[in-house]
Amino acid sequence: MELIGHGHSCIEIRLNDGTNLLFDPFINGNPLADVSLADLHPDYILITHGHSDHIGDMLAIAQANKATIIAIAEVATYAQSQGVKAHGMNLGGRCVFPFGSVKFVPALHSSGYEIDGVMTYMGEASGIILEAEDKKIYHAGDTALFSDMRLFAKDQSIDVAFLPIGDNYTMGPEDALQAVSYLNPKITIPIHYNTFPVIQQNPAIFVEQVVGGKVLNPGETILV
Ligand code: NI
Ligand code: MN
Predict the structure, then answer these.
(1) Could you give the strand order of the β-sheet that contains 44-46, starting from the edge strand earlier in sequence?
(2) Ligand 1 ion: residues within 5 Å (CB)
(3) Which ligand is nearest to the CA of 122?
(4) What stretch of H or E contains 105?
(5) Mean pLDDT for the stretch of residues 31-37
(6) DSSP structure string for 52-78
(7) Is residue 88 helix, strand or coil?
(8) CA 75 to the chain's CA centroid
(9) What mean pLDDT is predicted for residues 151-158?
(10) Contact 93, 86 (CB under 8 A)
């Protein structure tokens, strides 16, 4: 599979069978985004939580591509109310899709979305574990450090972990290093930094301290 960064927490995954998965498609308003909406052609859009820098452009992209949104129940219900296809899940739940399985796991964070000027409850924030093509990918979403992250690597080791390092809203680099020690992934890719002034970080310094650490700049692809 190919992993492509689009800035912030937006990650595109192209599976060998042609299935295109898109995580947290924050494009419009994302100063780091390397693509426009018309460049994205997902079959499924996976959303970690309801904040606007993660829901992003999910509705427009889902509409344009007839894609299915996979999200926590409240986010999925909102998406359906806006006329797009969505599959609702919740923490601890795993579901097998044609491309592989998706499990929603806890994140220590909040989740709400402003609708018509009203901050609306969007369920719990989550991380997402994708298993496809014999690979296990963990997208942590936005989260604080918590020691139960160890459990995510219990049955099968993690091939790739996307971990926030921006600090202020999520783990900073020091806590993300502790998360790496809990998760022990083969490849660790930092996300959620340098998009806004309060989350400025140097990802090169972070990945130097991590075995298998890799910076995935917007527009870059890695093959796993
Ligand atoms: Ni958030
Ligand atoms: Mn965020």
Answers:
(1) 85-89, 68-72, 44-46, 20-23, 11-14, 2-5, 221-223
(2) 51, 142
(3) 1
(4) strand 100-106
(5) 98
(6) HHHHTTHHHHHHHHTPEEEEEHHHHHH
(7) strand
(8) 14
(9) 96
(10) no
